[in-house]
Design brief:
By secondary structure, the protein is of the alpha+beta class. The chain is built from 23 helices and 60 strands. The strands form 16 sheets. Strands 5, 11, 14, 15, 16, 22, 23 and 24 form an 8-stranded mixed beta sheet that branches. β57 and β58 form a beta hairpin. α9 packs across α10. It is globular and about 125 Å long. This is USP domain-containing protein.
């Protein structure tokens, strides 16, 4: 079984089966109708492209399809009876029948396989598991055979797909033939050697080998070693075909394993296969063999590598059920987007329209041409070169030619729309019709002229029954037979071949008739679905065209602060539901009926938008009364229409249009009259006019007004639009005659230039919607000593986490997380851009005194580029370095081992801390793991019990137990390797050679928090599944006897306290079996048995290493008062709850140290398990914590140059392989 062999696809626009078309709601788009091919695809349920490719092949195998349809409900049962007790319903063939009927007769572009996969028993995430098509072929056929036991279709798979091969060895002395007959479902052909199918079959089924010399064969007749002929190659063991099936399946073994590199790879070399295959010479009796000629009818294709890809299939339409058109003339369709429920599948017959539709979805900024081409493939399934290059040339030249629609920059390879707008808006306009007509006319003219010179005539369509189609999930398109040759080699190449015997001719009545042999019950079912689907499309079309318009009435509005605002406590708008296909006259009538008496006689309609400053009016809705609403630009719900007289609102003249759109500004002034307000100003307002308004507001003189946004006084003639002023910008009004600004607030600003000086305090007023850049502007205006040309930036000074990364200036204060009482540091330096993040890193050892360094990098730089930058910043040399992430407390975490991915893909965020460590990274997909040799715990011999749970000494290995912990070196191993592979590699280390007789005598553990931790179990588990990562450190122990631990066994260290003291005896290893119980009482009983002591005499506690405390383990209760109680597990007896010691608060795991005190020998001190070492360690931890806090405070103080207090005092991170399973009931 091979995993990760395809990419995930879309699941289609909702589910069709399981619910049925009649159960859909109007908000979910219905299934689109079949395209011009007349063939239906299958939607990808998440990761089922491998299943879709095989199902389409089975559907287009007429013999299989018709034999399946012959099975009636008398033998298979009825789906409706599945819930009846004792009912044996053969659900898999029934659902396969329904799926085939829908694929043949349902008027839909695609269907999905939900009901079929449910019949497989896939109820969880199986549809998202990655599997192999060859594996599925065998498992699905096996499930079908089990499902059809004791029916007329019992031998369906056997009759159509099974064949027989025979292996022969012929004695050259007596002619005796020894043979072994084997059944086969598919013929496996190895790759890598042969270059075509015939040579591959010759290697496996046509060659002969002479067994002579040391390889002589012992003949049973001759009773001695003789020369013999093995018919066929050694790999096939002399295989010859004895019986050939009607449908021949050939599996190309493209996936292999490189034992030197220890990784899988895909054979992408050329391997040709014929359309017509003759197998006579590969049969047992070539001269007598008949009916051995085959025609190719299906090719299952895999695109990608061993770690990811996608399946689709090229299939010949044997029964001429589809309509084949020339691929260049096929319509282009953008599929439905199931996530939004918006109809975005548009039949486009021009590449201009197609590119316009794609660019309109990307935003007004456009795309790089490469991204545009990728999106084209994603939306249509076909690249530009395959579809359009022959007719229209390269995409770059095409974009240049259509400069009336596209803006193309050759220098940056960037393209955008000349006039941005959604495709729906454009396609409904008169311009679109005119442009489309011109484009079609011009392209037709050029095509005609160039066609006389260079274009070859279009090839005639294939004969019925020989038309090929590409089935790619829900997309089905015609292809030429010549395209089969493109699948001979490369990352996208043939993976399975299906041939049918030439003698299997189809009846004429089956040609072009999809209902042929379909049972009446299935025809009626699908016909009902078609009726429901047709009605559903009508309902959806009506619902999709019904929009809700917000109608606002001027009677309830007033013009204030530069924009329209509703009168308080008034119903200023009403919602109007209307079909956008209706006329303007019908819209006006509907508004009059909606508003009643508040609508004036000759009213005017304007489109409007709600802006931060208030409501603003744009274009007038006018024209012929017969104009369609959609053509007037009213296309989406909640479009705002304003009803008024067209000039005044409550006597105030109202300006309309984009030019006078209001911008909401924050105005701050402290002299001569304190002012702080927010109001709207028209974009076409000049700075000079704004100054006049502000001077009148503050009571000052125009010539004395100075604005923070201005550079020179020459800007008075520029408008707010020219200066790119946006909503939320702050203008600080200063007085050109004043040297100081007298502002008042409850916020405090402290400027610090050196550690010893005392600095003045200045108060400023800020709003939470002001940007960081606006706050910085206010600070600069308040400090005359700082030049406006000096680059400065702000950081947050947090009492707990220290100085943060520099703030992005485009953020508002609220978006940056700043609240009242937040301290800010103002320092010299350039602020990061929106596309950048700030990272800190520590070179070498993170526990050293070396200062943290800081870099500002783009989010899209790769890990390799970031690594080189950090090496240069730290003034280090060489390339033997790598980066490691840290957790929230800055402890070492995972290594960034993929140098090609970007920082954003690694989920690195602003302010994250990395470690720059020495050492070169292992290859991608491999782990570099340090290995340490640890001794087994050794106790006094007089204390070693004779029970089976105790460790036995082995004098033959004393040299591997009496030593100190030491390093064995490092191993480099693949993440996909098993625990057995890891042990084998460890045994090859110099010190381990000949030290361990077998793998079972070697225990591998993880070192966790400096102590021996988890024991790695289950030899066949992969390291990735065992959660061995690049940050893991391994410990190995040489055992004195074989060990094979399971999940119910925990390896503990038991220490007995010396009575009357705070010391313990040497630790003894104890393997606790949880099968007898996992509660505290069971653990205490097991330890008592291990130590040969009465259970009532002992008290036990767990040593918590990192805190240097002992946690009492008491029967039926938690050991700490402050530990959150775990959810009790109900026992069979009422009123009793068992505590699982593997869960909170105890978390008993491998490597834990369990202390044991004897109540009889140590009466006065059974609750205190602490030692003098624990007391010293806790004191050391306290000292280290105080030292860290001191160093942190010094670092923050050193970097602090200015603190801004905003009011208040200021105190305060590859799936494991899973086999395919299809569950079948027992029908024997």
């Amino acid at each position: 079984m091979l995993a990760d062999l395809f990419e995930e696809g879309d699941a289609g626009p909702g589910s069709t089966q399981g619910q049925g078309p009649g159960n859909r709601t109007a908000s979910v788009p219905p299934l689109p109708p079949r395209r011009s091919t007349g063939l239906a695809g299958i939607y990808n349920l998440g990761a089922t492209c491998y299943l879709n490719s095989l199902l389409q092949t089975l559907l287009m195998t007429p013999e299989f399809r018709e034999e399946l349809f012959k099975l009636g409900t008398e033998e298979l049962g009825r789906i409706e009876d599945i819930s009846l007790p004792g009912a044996k319903i053969r659900i898999i063939p029934l659902q396969l029948q329904r799926l085939f009927a829908r694929l043949l007769l349902l008027d839909a572009q695609g269907v999905n396989t939900t009901e079929l996969t449910d019949s497989f028993g896939w109820t969880g995430s199986e549809a998202f598991q990655q599997h192999d098509a060859q594996e599925l072929n065998r498992i699905l056929f096996s499930a079908m055979e089990d499902s059809l036991v004791a029916t007329e279709g019992e031998r369906l798979i056997q009759r159509l797909y099974h064949g027989t091969i025979v292996n022969q060895i012929v004695c050259e002395e007596c002619g005796n033939v020894v043979e072994r007959e084997e059944d086969f479902l598919d013929v496996c052909v190895p790759m890598g050697g042969p270059t075509d199918l015939e040579s591959g079959l010759t290697e496996g089924y046509g060659a002969a080998e002479l067994l002579c010399g040391p390889n002589q064969y012992r003949c049973e007749i001759c009773q001695r070693l003789v020369n013999a002929r093995k018919v066929g190659c050694p790999v096939a063991e002399g295989a010859k075909f004895r019986h050939l099936p009607p449908i021949l399946t050939i599996s190309l073994l493209r996936f292999n394993f490189d034992y030197q590199k220890m990784e899988r790879y895909k054979e992408t070399g050329k391997f040709a296969f014929p359309v017509e295959l003759k197998l006579g010479k590969f049969c047992e009796n070539e001269s007598a063999a008949k009916d051995t000629d085959y025609d190719l009818f299906s090719v299952v294709i895999h695109r990608g590598s061993t770690h990811g890809g996608h399946y689709h299939s090229y299939i010949r339409d044997v029964d001429a059920l589809g309509h084949w058109t020339h691929p260049d003339q096929e319509e282009i369709v953008i599929p439905t987007d199931p996530a939004t429920g918006k109809v975005d599948y548009i039949e486009l017959d021009s590449p201009v329209e197609l590119l316009h539709a794609i660019l309109s979805r990307s935003g007004e900024h456009g795309l790089i041409v490469d991204q545009l081409c990728s999106e084209l493939v994603k939306q249509t399934g076909v690249s530009w070169n395959k579809r359009f290059k022959k007719l229209y040339g390269p995409v770059n030249k095409f974009l240049k030619k259509h400069d009336d629609r596209f803006v193309y920059n050759p220098a940056s390879n960037w393209v955008s729309l000349k006039t941005y707008g959604s495709w729906e808006d454009y396609s409904s306009s008169d311009t679109a019709v005119e442009d489309h007509g011109k484009a079609q006319e011009e392209e037709a003219k050029e095509t005609t002229e160039s066609g006389r010179k260079s274009r070859r005539p279009t090839s005639p369509p294939p004969e019925p029954g020989w038309c090929w189609f590409n089935f790619d999930d829900a997309q089905v398109r015609p292809i030429r037979m010549q395209e089969l040759e493109s699948q001979f080699s490369g990352k996208e190449s043939a993976y399975m071949l299906f041939y049918r015997k030439k003698s299997m001719e189809r009846p004429k009545e089956a040609h072009g008739i999809p209902t042929y042999c379909v049972p009446d019950r299935l025809k009626e079912e699908v016909e009902e679905e078609n009726v429901n689907l047709k009605q559903q499309r009508l309902d959806y079309e009506e619902a999709a065209n019904t929009i809700v318009i917000d109608v606002h009435f001027s009677r309830n509005y007033v013009l204030t602060d530069g924009a329209l605002h509703p009168v308080p406590d008034s119903c200023h708008f009403m919602e109007l539901s209307i079909d956008r296909r209706k006329t303007l006259a019908e819209l006006r009538i509907a508004i009059m009926e909606l508003g009643g008496e508040i609508v004036m006689q000759d009213f005017v309609l304007h489109t409007a938008r709600k802006l931060p400053a208030g409501l603003h009016l744009y274009s007038c809705i006018s024209g012929d009364d017969s104009a369609i609403i959609q053509s007037l630009g009213i296309t989406t719900s909640h479009t705002i229409l304003f009803v008024w007289n067209g000039k005044h609102v409550r006597g105030e003249l109202v300006a309309t249009g984009v030019d006078c759109e209001p911008v909401l500004l924050n105005i701050v002034s402290g002299n001569p009259t304190p002012v702080s307000e927010r109001r709207g100003y028209p974009k076409n307002l000049t700075i000079g006019e704004l100054k006049c308004i502000l001077a009148e507001m503050t009571g000052g003189h125009v010539e004395d007004v100075k604005l923070s946004r201005l550079v020179t006084r020459d800007a008075d003639g520029q408008t707010l639009h020219d200066l790119k002023v946006t909503d939320g910008d702050t203008f600080v009004i200063g007085d050109t005659k004043q040297d100081k600004v007298d502002t008042r607030s409850d916020a405090m600003f402290c400027l610090q230039a050196a550690e010893e000086d005392v600095y003045p305090v200045l108060t400023v007023q800020v709003n939470k919607d002001v940007t960081v850049e606006g706050l910085k502007t206010v600070i600069k205006l308040s400090q005359k000593t700082i030049s406006s040309d000096v680059e400065t930036r702000l950081r947050v000074d947090d009492s707990d986490h220290g100085i943060s990364a520099p703030l992005h200036e485009q953020q508002s204060l609220s978006a940056a997380g700043l609240k009242t009482g937040t301290k800010l540091v103002w320092e010299l330096g350039q602020a990061p851009q929106t596309s950048q993040i700030t990272l800190t890193f520590t070179p070498n050892d993170p526990t050293s005194d070396m200062r943290d360094l800081e870099v500002v990098v783009e989010k899209q730089v790769t890990v390799a580029e970031c690594l080189h930058l950090m090496i240069a910043t730290a003034s280090l040399e060489g390339d033997e370095w790598h980066l490691r992430q840290t957790n929230w407390c800055r402890e070492a975490a995972d290594i960034l081992d993929d140098l090609a991915v970007t920082l954003e893909q690694c989920h690195l965020r602003d302010g994250d801390h990395l470690l720059l460590e020495s050492g070169k990274l292992p290859p991608k997909g491999f782990l570099k793991l340090p290995v340490w040799l640890h001794p087994l715990p050794v106790a006094d011999t007089e204390d070693i019990p004779t029970a089976d749970t105790a460790s036995n000494d082995d004098t033959g290995q004393e040299n591997m137990t009496n030593f100190q912990t030491r390093s064995l070196g490092e191993v480099i191993i693949s993440k996909e390797s098993t625990l057995d592979d890891l042990k084998q590699q460890i045994m090859t280390l110099p010190e381990m050679v000949d030290a361990v007789p077998m793998q079972q005598f070697l225990r591998v553990r993880l070192i966790e928090n400096g102590h021996l931790g988890t024991v790695l179990r289950l030899a066949t588990q992969t390291l990735q599944r065992l959660k061995v990562t690049s940050s893991s450190v391994l410990a190995v122990q040489v055992l004195t006897q074989e060990e094979n631990l399971d999940g119910n066994q925990v390896v503990l260290n038991v220490v007995e306290r010396v009575p009357g003291s705070r010391t313990y005896k040497p630790p003894r290893e104890f393997v606790w079996n949880l099968g007898r119980g996992a509660d505290p009482a069971s653990l205490r009983q097991s330890i008592a048995d291990f130590l040969a002591k009465p259970v009532e005499n002992i008290v036990i506690a767990k040593h918590v290493y990192d805190k240097h405390v002992w946690l009492m383990i008491k029967d039926g209760a938690t050991g700490q008062k402050n530990v959150r109680r775990q959810k009790p597990q109900k026992s069979k007896k009422k009123g009793h709850h068992k505590v699982n010691v593997k869960l909170a608060p105890y978390h008993i795991n491998d490597g834990d140290e369990i202390g044991v005190a004897d109540r009889l020998l140590d009466l006065d001190n059974t609750d205190d398990f602490g030692t003098a070492e624990d007391d010293a360690a806790k004191a050391q931890q306290q000292t280290e914590a105080e030292e860290r806090d001191r160093r942190k405070a010094e670092e923050n103080h050193r970097r602090r140059s200015a603190v801004v207090d905003l009011g208040g005092s200021g105190d305060r991170k590859r799936n494991a392989e899973v086999g395919i399973k299809i569950h079948v009931a027992n029908f024997t």
